[in-house]
Structures are given as structure tokens and as C-alpha cells.
Specification:
106 residues; mainly beta; 3-stranded antiparallel beta sheet; 9% helix; binds zinc ion
């Protein structure tokens, strides 16, 4: 049986998460300002395809929306353009999701 060989190009779609995804994403993703938003980009920790997430919401705005001590955890999804067998119509990506910790800057 060879059903667990790593083969990123043929990775089947699966809605999964793993503690390691967040760790890897934190190490490899870059964040840059894009107007009023932030643009996170890097390789999906599951399928290794490049993905980009625009983050536009009140979490990053200065003001009352940020609860004290809230580091800004966000769940993000893989949004790669590559084909993943078994992917339902509509969603992009390989199905991987993980939590990203956003640090609001002053
Ligand atoms: Zn992918
Ligand atoms: Zn992926």
C-alpha cells in the first residue's frame, strides 16, 4: 500500500487542520501593508502552494474594537489555485485551515 506517499501535486482535497500548519505558516508567511489592509502571503503548510490572504477588518484598526489582550487570532483557509482531487465546486485551496496570530502594531 502506498496511499500515504507525499505527492503535493495530487494531494486530495480534505478539510483538515494540524498544529503544525500554524507553526509552519507563522515561520514562512510574510505580512505587508496594503493600503488599509494587510496582505499575508506564503506557502500553504499542507499543499505547499502559494496563497495570499488579504486581511481587512476592524481587528487591525486602532480603537475600541480590539479587546485588551486579544492577540488577534484568525482562522485562515488555503486558497491556492492548484487542482486538488475531490475538491467540491466553489471552494479554492486544498481544504487546509489553521489559526494565524496577528499582532496589531501601533
Ligand atoms: Zn494547493
Ligand atoms: Zn493548501
Amino acid at each position: 500500500m502506498h496511499d500515504r506517499e507525499p505527492a503535493a501535486d495530487a494531494l486530495p482535497y480534505a478539510e483538515v487542520t494540524d498544529d503544525g500548519y500554524a507553526v509552519r505558516a507563522a515561520e514562512t508567511f510574510t505580512v505587508r501593508e496594503f493600503g488599509p489592509a494587510l496582505l499575508l502571503s506564503g506557502d500553504c503548510p499542507r499543499c505547499r502552494h502559494p496563497v495570499t490572504f488579504p486581511v481587512v477588518d476592524h481587528v487591525y484598526r486602532h480603537g475600541s474594537a480590539i479587546p485588551p489582550g486579544d492577540p488577534g487570532y484568525r482562522t485562515v483557509l488555503c486558497t491556492c489555485d492548484a487542482e486538488h482531487p475531490g475538491r467540491p465546486a466553489g471552494p479554492a485551496g486544498c481544504g487546509a485551515y489553521w489559526t494565524l496570530r496577528l499582532e496589531a502594531r501601533t
